[in-house]
Design a protein that fits this description.
The chain is an alpha/beta fold. The protein has helices at about 25-30, 55-65, 70-80, 80-90, 120-130, 160-180, 205-220, 250-265, 270-275, 280-290, 305-315, 340-350, 415-425, 465-480; strands spanning about 5-10, 20-25, 40-45, 65-70, 105-110, 135-140, 145-155, 190-195, 220-225, 240-245, 265-270, 295-300, 320, 330-335, 355-360, 365-370, 375-385, 390-395, 400, 405, 430-440, 440-450. Among the domains are: about 5-180, no CATH class; about 190-270, Rossmann fold.
Length: about 475
């Protein structure tokens, strides 16, 4: 477990019943202490100016390998008014307009993600997740819509008596997991977060797989803990993050990945992989430039008669249309003629600036090759859903899927395996599921999934527990390499 220290300007202003803090001079002299492998710092010093004590506290904490809140990047972001406004602009959209007689300017304080006024709490929590500072001073102005007047870091010394009482209440909640968590029977070397969402309809891992991931993690020195969508502020408590929620760019999963990367965690899926894999238009363009074998495709930006004629001439009918960021066969349509093409293109282009048109190739199954750090991990054949041309058939309130067959990777045809590894190298060194169609001796990469399914009894049907051991072992290897 980690050591936790609070650094303030004047420890004599701190209540006796709260955990005793350090001043900045003591932090400089006394830390790190012998035998403390992981140290977390809550910096509450004044940091209004560049190279102030508060700024140096965060800067030196990062130099010493300590986890610090706020980070130097966050302090620098808050010093830039333009960057602050840009990063916070979208957070105010759901805030209701002031009622008749209410002021059109609001000032409030966010204390470790908590705001005293109930209707400002969601905004306060979102601001804290984006600008991870212990204390934030906020002013909002309304002129037809709410705008951020100011958003700035504040030191503990600036708080009045009421705010200090509220801060210590928030601090108790915030640090509970750090100093009140029960001691583990066996001390783990690293803290390992699993991001899951119990409300997700089609999660990438079922409960059986999650339990086996946790079991494998413990065997290699990782202490696993599940996080949910509301736990973004806790990322700094961990050394590694494994995302087991279906990812998207405009989604909390990307925010978790990006925050983890900034905090220095080992993270799968990393944000670059999410960016590259979540957009089919990007993938298709990258396939072309990197000579990854794929089906004939065309990127479409218009539903004009000329564009439709070009699609028909180049790809023929039926043709498959895909929105860029669909998953589990959602946002994929097969059209059989010109009239259907016109209607479907118009519908899709109303929601997306680009659509991918692709030649149709029927196969009884699609290959899924799991690749971890550039090496094949597992191989499955997913069969098409009954009376359907895709693996998943989405109906009224239900999703049907076909059967599967899991094979050892050494039984996969060489053309399929080579195509999968070439596609994975184009994305990165994470955990990927490469979907491939095979026709005779030829293989065609359909897409690369940054968050592939790992379900007990499916993807692990051949390797069993070893599948999860290889994944946990990769996390441990990367942490060891970083000296964490």
């Amino acid at each position: 477990m980690s050591a936790f220290y609070i650094v303030v300007d004047d420890p004599t202003d701190w209540p006796d019943e709260a955990p005793a803090p350090l001043d900045f001079a003591s932090y400089l002299r006394e830390l790190p202490r012998a035998g403390e492998k992981k140290t977390r710092i809550l910096n509450l010093c004044a940091a209004g100016g560049y190279l102030s004590e508060g700024y140096y506290c965060s800067l030196l904490a990062e130099a010493r390998g300590h986890r610090v809140l706020p980070s130097v990047n966050t302090l620098n972001d808050l010093r830039s008014e333009a960057l602050t406004l840009l990063r916070a602009e979208d957070l105010l959209a759901k805030l209701p307009a002031p009622a008749a007689g209410e002021p059109h300017s609001r000032e409030f304080v966010v204390l470790l993600g908590h705001s005293a006024e109930a209707r400002l709490r969601p905004l306060g929590r979102r601001l804290f997740e984006r600008f991870a500072c212990p204390i934030l001073r906020v002013r909002l102005d309304y002129a037809g819509a709410w705008r951020l007047g100011t958003l700035r870091y504040a030191a503990y010394a600036e708080l009045d008596a009421t705010e200090r009482a509220a801060f210590h209440e928030a601090l108790g909640r915030f640090t509970q997991s750090l100093w009140r968590r029960p001691r583990q029977r066996k001390a783990a070397r690293w803290d390992f977060a699993l991001l899951v969402d119990p409300a997700e309809t089609l999660p990438p891992s079922d409960e059986g797989a999650l339990k086996r991931i946790e079991k494998a993690a413990r065997k290699v020195g990782l202490n696993p803990e599940r996080l949910g969508p509301g736990d973004l502020s806790r990322i700094g408590e961990f050394d590694a993050l494994f995302i087991r929620v279906t990812t998207a760019i405009d989604h909390y999963t990307y925010q978790f990945a990006r925050r983890a990367e900034i905090e220095g965690l080992v993270v799968i899926d990393d944000p670059t992989s999410i960016l590259r894999c979540c957009n089919k238009v990007f993938l298709q363009d990258a396939f072309s430039y990197n000579r990854v074998p794929t089906l004939r495709s065309r990127i479409v930006a218009s539903a004009s008669a000329e564009e439709r004629a070009a699609i028909e001439a180049e790809l023929g009918f039926p043709v498959v249309l895909k929105i860029p960021d669909g998953s589990f066969s959602r946002g994929v349509r097969k059209v059989a003629d010109g009239a259907a093409l016109e209607a479907e293109l118009a519908r899709m282009l109303a929601d997306s600036a680009l659509v991918l048109a692709q030649e149709y190739l029927y196969t009884e199954y699609d290959w899924r090759i799991g690749v971890l750090n550039g090496r094949p991990l597992y191989a499955c054949r997913y069969f098409m859903a009954r009376n359907h041309w895709q693996i998943y058939a989405h109906g009224e309130g239900r999703v049907d899927s076909g059967g599967f067959e899991t094979l050892p990777t050494y039984e996969v045809p060489r053309a399929v395996l080579d195509a999968a590894l070439r596609a994975a190298r184009m994305i990165g060194d994470g955990l990927y599921g490469i979907d491939i169609k095979q026709q005779g001796a030829r293989a065609y990469v359909i897409e690369v999934n940054d968050n592939p399914s790992l379900d007990h009894g499916v993807e692990d049907a051949f390797l069993g527990e070893e599948l999860y051991m290889q994944i946990a072992g990769e996390f441990a290897r990367r942490l060891e390499r970083r000296g964490r």
